[in-house]
Amino acid sequence: MRPDGEVNPIDTDYQIGQDNIVVNVGPFGLDIHNRVFAISGLAVVAFVALTLMFQNQVEPLFSGLRGWLTGNLDWFFIGAGNIFVLVCLGLAISPLGRVRLGGTEAKPDYSYLGWFSMLFAAGMGIGLMFFGVSEPLSHFGSAFGGTAMENGVRTDWAPLGAAAGDAEGATRLAMAATIYHWALHPWAIYAVLALGLALFSFNKGLPLTIRSVFYPLLGERVWGWPGHVVDILAVFATLFGLATSLGLGASQASSGLNHLFGVPLGDTTQIVLVIVITAIALVSVVAGLDAGVKRLSEINMVLALLLLAFVIAVGPTLAILTGFFDNLGAYLQYLPALANPVGREDANFAQGWTAFYWAWWISWSPFVGMFIARVSRGRTVREFIISVLIVPSLACVLWMTVFGETAISQFVKDGYKAAVEADLPLQLFAMLEVLPLSQITSFVAIVLVVVFFVTSSDSGSLVIDVISAGGKVDAPLPQRVFWCTFEGLVAIALILGGGLVALQAMAVSTGFPFTIVLLMSAVAVVKGLASEPRAV
């Protein structure tokens, strides 16, 4: 799409797809970047094969990998998260905030309401379903239980200094820690890459792929091996980030089915669910984003809002409404301590929760960033950052407050212990159990988990395909089928090779190198914006 008004385009001889290999086999065709697709595709196939062949041997390997990365690099992940927030806030208040994506005269493609709903839907649906009850409840339980020492080392999982025996203090700390993981920091991670993709595509005229963001740093070398490495890392990060989400979604859906219908728990049920979810996503891929799939996604958002409204109405309504503002205040109060990357006494929390989350968000950033970029043409940088950071953050605060406050209130005021004592994937259903119409709401929750991932899987396979096709957005269908299928196969391999530990290990291990990519992209974005004309 041509820019509207003044821009400062990059003059390059590179043509989208010039390094691609085009192959036709009967009715099927391939149009793939000869190096990015070959290396990332072969590596993913080899990973799945080796993990399935050596299931027993890889479990301790994944466990050790996650432990080493989060134990030794937690300061790096936490510090990087802080940098992304500061970069975003700095751009928003600087003169660079007047740069308009798409040119000085560009008009937004979507209304505010439509844009905001897409921003929120893009990033966190399946995670909010999994962690909406379990994270506030987990932090509350560990904070309320206080600290525990063994050989001079803290062994508890409480955030900061805990709040032993203080229900009100533990609630504030739990909600502050939860919001820290779901508000400004993750959305800043998304915003940095999304802004870079939008700027270099809409204003600079480069392909909509990750390597384009690095043109100010690499120049024409971005079309060579340095760019290949960036795009390959983006493919790995996106694939394993989506596989992690699929694994979490499958574990929660299987727990819900066991809770409602007595379906057996275990790897077999989760694998069947992964296959079913992947099959539905494949139907969506083959059919294109037709009216049925779009309608399914819209229905899912309506169901999520209805579930939210239902819990507000039948849960501790006053505690939820007042808790929203109390929790925001607690978040701001504890934010400096939670975001401190060095000298932490709460090593388990900082490493096991925060470092994993930041790596997971970073692994999702190519997927979510590309989606946000595509729907944000016509916005100024200031408008973009404020909206991408603030609006979805407030929506996440509301969601976590509604589900978290309800679960904590059930324990503190009613003495209901089932949710606290349940495994993480089951805690949402245990919370809904003591509310009216629990059979219906639990079934709705299962449907939400499944459909949230179907839409994420379909969109994610499209993004990976664009990257591995050298920036082509209309690559042949078999390539998207390949990536969608292997998202499911990677999730199955990780479930069999260590379950949640393996899923987290791969999210962290692919998130680590891509964190370096994102930090470099932040520099490139500032350099790119500095050369752009600014809207009056």
**What structural class results from the helix and strand content?**
mainly alpha
Order of helices and strands: EEHHHHEEHHHHHHHHHHHHHH
Largest sheet: 2 strands, antiparallel
Which parts are unreliable, with pLDDT below 50 for 5 consecutive residues or more?
none
Number of strands: 4
Mean pLDDT across all amino acids: 88
Number of helices: 18
Rounded to the nearest angstrom, the radius of gyration is 23 Å
Describe this structure in words.
With 536 residues, this protein is mainly alpha-helical. 72% of the residues lie in helices and 3% in strands. The strands form two sheets. Strands 1-2 form a two-stranded antiparallel ribbon. A two-stranded antiparallel ribbon has the order 3-4. A hairpin with a 2-residue loop joins β3 (149-150) and β4 (153-154). The chain is globular. The mean pLDDT is 88.
Secondary-structure topology with pairs:
Blueprint: E1 20-25, E2 28-33, H1 36-53, H2 55-93, H3 112-123, H4 125-145, E3 149-150, E4 153-154, H5 167-182, H6 184-203, H7 215-218, H8 225-261, H9 267-287, H10 291-314, H11 317-338, H12 347-374, H13 381-412, H14 418-421, H15 427-433, H16 438-468, H17 477-496, H18 500-530
Antiparallel strand pairs: 1-2, 3-4
